[in-house]
């Protein structure tokens, strides 16, 4: 039997993903986020884990370096990779939203046209503004997006929030919600064909576990 | 800007001698198979008017367009089915069954990857004027035979039926827009998206389950039997019976072991109206062959005719074969012929003799020592060695 390679993202989805996979029999010794090993295998159950940087995860799956992976829908929407989306795992819920400094609030979203927007999600932001029919100057940052308006790099931000505390601390106001995202189980196109039986069973088992937990 | 002098345009590639020999061999084997089954080769222009391609429905952003001197919009062909439909409608006797084949360079603006370039080669067939399961079975059997003749051993053809899915969306009373969304999610295999559409609507529970499982409905003949037990509408049931009828014929052709059913299968060409299929081989990310029935396309060209066909992606077959070791065997010429000083005339005579006997021969361009000639033999990738002294 071939190995099934599972890509797991570093960060907030990691712990819950490991727990969930363990419940359906997919686990390996020393599977932890700060493992120095890059590939962690379980030779008995023929499972291999790789732990990747969040934004790179869909790429690993797209190219078949991993058969499946768990990743936030926000990353999938931003990266637009050719992967199959097999299951909504419901955890890791977060929201992509548009925020402005409290002092800058305007009556309509379209009133913000042509201003500068700092974001880690330039593709999603562009699509959102395109749909509104307004042009913006989008500035791609890789972190600390809320810093943008504070130091005059941008007027607005498009960013992911979970609770909204960071926004309040920085005197930012959410003016529109763009989408809500949760963790997804994704699969490589070929793996879905070639390892269909095992992946189908995995999806069914995960569905069952989630249903039982939901009760 | 850096000069483009030494670059090839994005998504295009050169094919070097070894690969080209493999490519031609694959193409020729496939072409011979097509002839054996009674298909005649045709050629159509590399570019056509955009209007011709719009008739088949799908004008995506992914084509290369340009203008002629009268400002008509032209485009490089993105597939061969549309040009052949035009050809049959305008040039051939459409009251006959026309069995046509082709090999052609096609152009689509795609994100270039291994096996997925902007310029690529397809070999395929179209059967215009053939309705019913017998025509579909012939096309599938020819598909399997062509792949076998091309040198592939380990491959699977997944077969589906568009009416099965359309029957389901009709039974679920989805709006046209929702049905379109469902199709998109089936193409991208987005199980989550599919579930969301289903949950948004108040659909009969027995149907909800089929929708949720749609992307996992893979299997053999038993899957068809299982579907007959479900509460399906006429259209979906007829689709299942159609697949059964085709499958029964494929058993007579003796190729059923290559066939599985994938009832959630949809292809990203919009023109399919019945049975449709895709073929896969191990370690290849993309389908190596695709086709199906497209009965409404000829209507757009003014000659309503049933039609069915398929196209094989030649570069993808090459990749699959290169991964098998077999490919190496055809990389060589039969003979390398070297010669000593003053022996050129003898060498030419020997070459003539060998070539007349059907050997492929590579002759030295200048006299060389026997030792040097041996080295050149290896460089020139020739199997055997001859030396005139």
Q: Strand sequence of the main sheet of chain A, in spatial order? A: 2-3-1-4-11-5
Instruction: Report helical residue fraction of chain A.
Output: 25-40%
What is the percent of helical residues of chain B?
Answer: 40-55%
Our measurement of the CA-to-CA distance between the termini of chain B, rounded to an integer number of angstroms, reads 56 Å
Secondary-structure content class of chain B: alpha/beta
**What profile does the largest beta sheet of chain B have?**
9 strands, mixed
H/E element order of chain B = HEEHEEHEEHEHHHHEHHEEEHEHEHEHE
Counting DSSP E segments of at least 2 residues, the number of strands of chain B comes to: 15
**Sheet with the most strands of chain A?**
6 strands, mixed
Q: From the structure provided, what is the oligomeric state, counting identical versus distinct chains?
A: heterodimer
Number of domains of chain B: 2
Radius of gyration of chain B: 25 Å
Reconstruct the topology from this structure:
The complex is a heterodimer of chains A (215) and B (389).
Chain A lengths: L3 E6 L4 H10 L15 E4 L4 E6 L4 H6 L5 E5 H7 L4 E5 L5 E8 L14 E4 L2 H11 L4 E4 L6 H4 L5 E6 L3 H5 L2 E10 L1 E5 L1 H6 L1 H19 L1
Parallel strand pairs in A: 1-3, 1-4, 7-8, 7-9
Antiparallel strand pairs in A: 2-3, 4-11, 5-11, 6-9, 6-10
Chain B lengths: L16 H20 L3 E2 L5 E3 H5 L10 E3 L5 E4 L4 H11 L6 E10 L11 E10 L3 H19 L4 E7 H10 L4 H12 L3 H10 L4 H9 L4 E2 L1 H8 L5 H20 L5 E4 L12 E7 L7 E5 L3 H4 L6 E7 H10 L9 E7 L4 H13 L4 E3 L6 H10 L2 E7 L1
Parallel strand pairs in B: 1-5, 7-9, 13-14, 13-15
Antiparallel strand pairs in B: 2-4, 3-4, 5-6, 6-12, 7-10, 8-9, 10-11, 11-12
Helix pairs in contact in B: 1-4, 1-12, 4-10, 5-10, 6-7, 9-10
